[in-house]
Amino acid sequence: MSATTAEDSAPTPRARWPRVLALGALVVLLLVGGLAAGTVPRVNRDRAVREQAAAIAAEPPRVAVATATRVAADAMRVLPGTCLPLTETAIYPRTTGYVKRRAVDIGDRVEAGQVLAEIATPEVDAQLEQARAALTQDAANVVRAQAQEVYARAQVKREQRAYESGAESRDLYDSAVANFAVTTATVRATEATLKVDEANIRRLEAVQSFQKVTAPFDGVITARNVDPGALVQADTPATVRELFHLMRTDVVRVWVYVPQTFATALKPGQKATVYRREDPARMFAGTVVRTADALDPSTRTLLAEIHVRNPDNVLRPGMYLQVKFTFDREVFPVTIPAAAVVIRTEAPTVGVLDPSNTVHYRKVQLGRDHGAEVEVTVGLSPGEVVVVRPGDELPDGALVEPVAPAK
């Protein structure tokens, strides 16, 4: 028996082909199976997404909506105001002289009649003494003229008796009558001179009384422009600075310019609340005492004056204040979000929903703008539902699904 060689034991090429084909078929099957396993789920997912997108596209668009609400019967409004003193005056000298003494300075509170300063006027004093001496002299002249009148009257009677008895001529009688007329006129002239002297004395006494500069009313000194020794001149306010400036601040005036919207609702006697922006917790009660009764054509505002008691002197003249009014409305608009108003080339419009949730654009007339909200005076009723931020892609007649707007 012969041994088998290595060449006899090796497979022939024809015997290897079935194995190769089987192995390739297995690989192909594995590749096809893997491809099918990855593709089918993806196809299913794409089909599901398309079906969901079609369902969403078929549904009405979701839009944020809001309800139009009627405003309150009264309106609160805060307006800026300017604080002014109730009364103020500039005090000038009424006599010429030198300031002898100054009794007050800025910030001092004074009472009516209190002496603020004294002015030395030696010339006025001398003129007053001269006038009094002239009055004494003229009074003596009146007495003398009256005595001469009495004598002339007696002389007329004597000359009349002598003329009637024929002892004297008519010329002497006529001369006595003329002399009596002269003495009577002299009496009248000296009496008139006496009245002139009395009037001059009263004038100089009045000028002398102006040596003491007094306060015309209770208040606070806000300006002082003189010192002792300064020369002051009377009745020259155009060329001379004021001696003092006086303000009354226990009650202050507040001037407020009210816009045209509330101008007709503001009446004298109406109450108001005044406060400083720096201290809003402390409020002061005020009353409208008068208005200009006409609007400023340049600003379309009405000037109103409010009186406020200021016992603690917290409100200072010149302050910028806040004035809070409560107005009774004459027109009752509705309010909607400002984002619901569509502003295009034409009038403002609002998308209103009907009971079937269909959008209908409606022209409206706007009132006051409050920022996040706006008033609608014409074109919208309370309780109607409007679309917030409709956008350009939402056409008129579109069916929508309303949702509450996000806060």
Concise overview:
With 407 residues, this protein is α+β, with helices and mostly antiparallel strands. Among the domains are: 63-73 and 332-403, conserved putative lor/sdh protein from methanococcus maripaludis s2 fold (Beta Barrel), CATH 2.40.420.20; 122-210.
Topology diagram in text:
Layout: H1 6-9, H2 13-58, E1 62-67, E2 69-70, E3 74-91, E4 97-102, E5 109-110, E6 115-120, H3 122-165, H4 170-209, E7 212-214, E8 219-224, E9 231-232, E10 244-259, H5 260-263, E11 271-276, E12 279-296, E13 301-309, E14 320-328, E15 334-337, E16 341-342, E17 349-353, E18 359-363, E19 365-369, E20 373-378, E21 385-388, E22 401-403
Parallel strand pairs: 1-22
Antiparallel strand pairs: 1-21, 2-15, 3-10, 3-14, 4-6, 4-9, 5-8, 6-7, 8-10, 10-13, 11-12, 11-14, 12-13, 15-20, 16-17, 17-18, 17-21, 19-20
Helix pairs in contact: 3-4
